[in-house]
Design brief:
The chain is mainly α. It has a domain of about 90 residues. It has 5 helices and no strands. The protein is elongated. The two termini are about 20 Å apart.
């Protein structure tokens, strides 16, 4: 095998990257929607509802982390120090508490695909 040619990236790894990117974009939009909804409730309740305004920060932060990780996964070749983001997948599952079901699906599917033999081998795990 020629060392100048990068190894072929598994299709399932690309699927993880695309799902994570889409979930990250949707999480950012979801957090904007949460901010607007909470602000509207806050105005309607004479600013008492604004106490809940920080609830929109979790999806926003998660969306940014997802986009950064997905962009790193979509590069060809991916950097050797990049590892599976199990914690990011778990955070996506926790995002269901904020009403985002798509992040739940993305997190569960990512955890399943991280255990695929080809994906584990590409990350250098056995």
């Amino acid at each position: 095998m020629d060392p100048a040619v990068p190894p072929q990236k598994p299709d399932r790894l690309t699927a993880i990257a695309v799902m994570t990117l889409v979930s990250g974009i949707l999480n950012i939009f979801w957090s904007i929607g949460l901010f607007l909804a909470i602000a509207a409730i806050g105005v309607g309740t004479f600013l008492i509802g604004c106490i809940c305004l920080p609830l929109g920060f979790y999806p926003l932060a998660l969306g940014i982390l997802e986009i950064i990780y997905a962009v790193k996964l979509l590069r060809n070749p991916i950097s050797p120090e990049l590892k599976p983001a199990y914690i990011l997948a778990v955070l996506e599952i926790i995002d269901t508490l904020f009403g985002n079901v798509i992040a739940l699906v993305t997190g569960v599917v990512a955890l399943i695909l991280y255990n695929d033999v080809a994906v584990r081998r590409h990350f250098g795990e056995t």
